[in-house]
């Protein structure tokens, strides 16, 4: 099932999401639906709050970037109850976008390297380091679980310049090919 994507201004995107355990209802189906939703909207990452579920889970798949960077072809994963334990390395800007903030892309500065613990779909535990694009995507998706959006990281002036555009998005002023949910509304079909 493809979920509609919740867009900027919806309260579910601002909640701190809760951990789940292996008895979470229909977990494997939920993960499959998360991937399906992400592919349908041409995303490379999707966090559960963007699908309206306030739980600590996100999926990533960078296969579509393999032409730019062959090492990204096998990076398809689900992260459950993740915890970023360390952020280190150079702080650099990278152009980010978000399915919940259609039409806006901005440079966001983040640390280059992270150490993260998480569970996979079978609740095996991992403690790993990531750098490069992987680290970037993980940090973006992880933020969603804490109610943080990439625009929150921008400088105050930049935020002021984007304010009208963001308000417009929350009122439906955007055009995307996937289903969305506006603040205070039920799903809409385009
Ligand atoms: Ni996002």
Write a short abstract of this structure:
The chain has 3 helices and 8 strands. Strand 5 (about 105-120) and strand 6 form a beta hairpin.
Q: Quaternary status of these chains? A: single chain
Percent range for β-strand residues: 25-35%
Please give the radius of gyration in angstroms: 16 Å
Query: What's the helix count?
Result: 3
How many discrete domains?
A: 1
Kindly identify the CATH topology. Answer: Peptide Deformylase
Distance between the termini: 16 Å
Q: What is the second-level CATH architecture?
A: Alpha-Beta Complex
Write down the overall mean pLDDT: 95
- With strands numbered from the N-terminus, the spatial order across the biggest sheet is 2-3-4-5-6
Secondary structure: number of strands: 8
CATH class: Alpha Beta
Protein architecture, described:
This protein is an alpha+beta fold. It has one domain: Peptide Deformylase, CATH 3.90.45.10. The longest helix has 15 residues. It binds nickel (II) ion. Nickel (II) ion binds next to helix 2. The site of nickel (II) ion has 4 residues, from helix 2.
């Amino acid at each position: 099932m493809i979920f509609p994507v919740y867009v900027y201004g919806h309260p579910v995107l601002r909640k701190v999401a809760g951990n789940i355990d292996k008895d979470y209802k229909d977990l494997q189906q939920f993960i499959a639906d998360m991937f399906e939703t992400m592919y349908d909207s041409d995303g490379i990452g999707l966090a559960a709050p963007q699908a309206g579920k306030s739980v600590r889970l996100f999926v990533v798949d960078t296969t579509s970037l393999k032409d730019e960077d062959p090492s990204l072809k096998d990076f398809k994963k689900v992260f459950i109850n993740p915890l970023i334990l360390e952020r280190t390395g150079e702080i650099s800007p990278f152009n980010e976008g978000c399915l919940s903030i259609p039409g806006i892309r901005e440079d966001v500065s983040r640390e280059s390297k992270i150490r993260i613990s998480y569970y996979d779909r079978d609740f095996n535990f991992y403690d790993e380091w990531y750098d490069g694009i992987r680290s970037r995507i993980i940090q973006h998706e992880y933020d969603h679980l804490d109610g943080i959006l990439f625009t929150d990281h921008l400088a105050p002036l930049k935020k002021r310049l984007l304010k009208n555009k963001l308000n417009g998005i929350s009122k439906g002023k955007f055009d995307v090919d996937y289903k969305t949910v506006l603040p205070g509304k039920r799903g809409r079909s385009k």
